[in-house]
Description:
The structure holds 2 protein chains of 2 kinds. By secondary structure, chain A is an all-alpha fold. Chain A is about 85% helix and about 0% strand.
Amino acid sequence: MDVMFAHEFMRNALLASTGIALAAGVAGYFLVLRGQVFAADALSHVAFTGGVAALAFGVNEFFGLLVATVLAAVLLNSLSVASRAGDVEIGVFFALILGLGVLFISIYVSGHSTSNSTGGAGVLFGSVFGISAGQARTAVFVSIGAVVCLLVIARPLLFASVDSAAAAAQGIRVGVLGGAFLLVVAVVASEAVQVTGALLILGLMATPAAVARNLTTRPYAGMALSAGIALVATWSGLTLSYLVPTLPPSFAMMAVLFGLYLISTGILAMQKERS
Amino acid sequence: MIDALDQLFAYQFMQNAFLAGTTAAVLAGIVGYFVVLRGEAFAGHTLAIVGFPGAAGAILFGLPQLLGLAVLCTASGLGIGVLGRGAVRDRHAESAAIGTIQAFMLGLGFLFVSLYKGLLEGVYSILFGTFLGVTSAQVLLLLAIAVVALAALALIGRPLLYLSVDEPAAAAAGVPVRVLSIGFLVVLGLAIASTALITGALLVFALLVMPAAAANQLVARPGLAMLVSVGLGLIIVWSGLTISYFSDLPIGFLVTGIGFVIYAIARMARQLRGA
C-alpha cells in the first residue's frame, strides 16, 4: 500500500476519482429515480464528440467537454419539455453525434504524429493514471460544487421526481429544477470523462444508484449509499489496476460495479422470497 | 467516370467492402423497418454495444471477428427477449440495468482490445467501422448469415407485422407473441453483427435505423417501405464507401452523415406534403 501511495500519479488518480465518484453517485441516484438513464447515455455520447473535437482543434479538453455536454443538456431539456422525442429520433441523433466524433478523431490523428494519437482512446475509455495534480484539484473543486448544488435542490428535486404534478401544485418550478439538475449532470459527466472515459460514464452514474435502490428505498440513505458504492468501486478499481497492470483502470471499475450490481440483485431477490 | 469506377474496384479489398456493405445494407434495411415499427431502437443500441466485446474477444482469441459478433449479438438478443418480459415491469430499474450492462460490456471490450497489442487500430475499427481488411471469407460468412436471417424473417414476417401493429389483436387471433418477439430479437442480433462489420459497433444505426426511419416518413405500405429502406441503405453505404475511398474521410462519419441528411430530407418532404 505504501508503495502504491508513493506514486504521484496514483495519489492524483485517487484524489480526482474520490471527488468524481461522490458527485457521480449522488447525481446518478436522481438520474435513476427520474428515469433519465438514457439522457445520461446521450450526454456520454456527446461528451465523447466534445472531447475529441477539443483535441482536434487544440482547445482545452475539459472546456470542450463542458461546452458539449451543457449544450446537450439544454437541448435534451427543451426537447423533453416541448415534445417527448421517441426512441428513433434519439437514436438517429446519437448516431450522428458519434459519427461527428469519428470525423474529429481522424482530423486529430492526421494532424499529429502517430506517437501522439493515444488521446482519442483516453477520451473513450479514460486516462485516470494520467491526471495531473492541477487536474485532480480542479476535479475535486468541481465535484464538491456539484454535490453542494445537488444537496441544495435535493428536497424539491426528490418531490418533483416522485410526483411531478403534486410538486408543481405546491409551487415548485418543476421545469426549471429539471433543467438545473441536467446542467449539474453535464458538469459531472465532463469531469468523469477523465476517470472512466466518455463511453463508461453511464456505469459510474447508473450502476451505483441501481445497486443502492436494490438495497434501500429511503431516498437520503440511498443517495449516500450510491455515493459510497461509487467510491468503493473507483478505489478498488484503481487498486486492482495498479496491482495487475494489464487491467485497464476503467475496466476494473466497471467490473467491480457489475459485481456489486449482481450481488445486490441477489440480495433483493432473497429478501423478496423471505417476505 | 469509367476510369473512376475502374480505380474504385481495382483492389480486392474494395470489391469485398462493396459486397459486404451491400449485404449488410439489404439485411439491415429490412430488419430496421421492423425495429422502427416496433420501437426497439434501444434494444438495437444495446445489442450493438455487446458486439464490441464480441468482436474484440474474437480478435484476441484468434477467431473470425464476424463470428464473435454474431454469437454475442444473437445470444444477447435471446437474453433480452427472454428476460425482458418479466412479470412486473419497472421501467426505471430496467433502464438502470441496461445502462449497467452496457457500461460493463464496453469496459470488457476495452479490456480485450488492450490485452491484444494493436490498441488504437483495434478500438477504432471495431467501434467506428472500417472498409479495409474485409476478407473474402468474411463476405461468404456474411452472405450465409444474411440468407439465414432473411429466410427466418420471411417465415415470421406476416404475423410479426400484425403483432407489431396491433399486439392485443394479434394475440387474440392466436399469434404466438412471445416466440415471435424473441425470434425477432435473434434476427436483429444477426443483422447488427453483419452491419457492425462495416459501420463499427457504435454506428450500426447508420444502416439499421436511419434508412428505415426515412422510409417510414415517405411511404406507408409495409412492403414498399422495406424496399425504400433497402434502397436508401444501399445509397448510404455505396456513396459512403466511394467517398471514403477517394477522400481521407472516415467511413463511420460518412455513413452516419449521409444517413442523417437522407432522414432530414425525408422528414421535410413529409412535412411539405402534409402542409
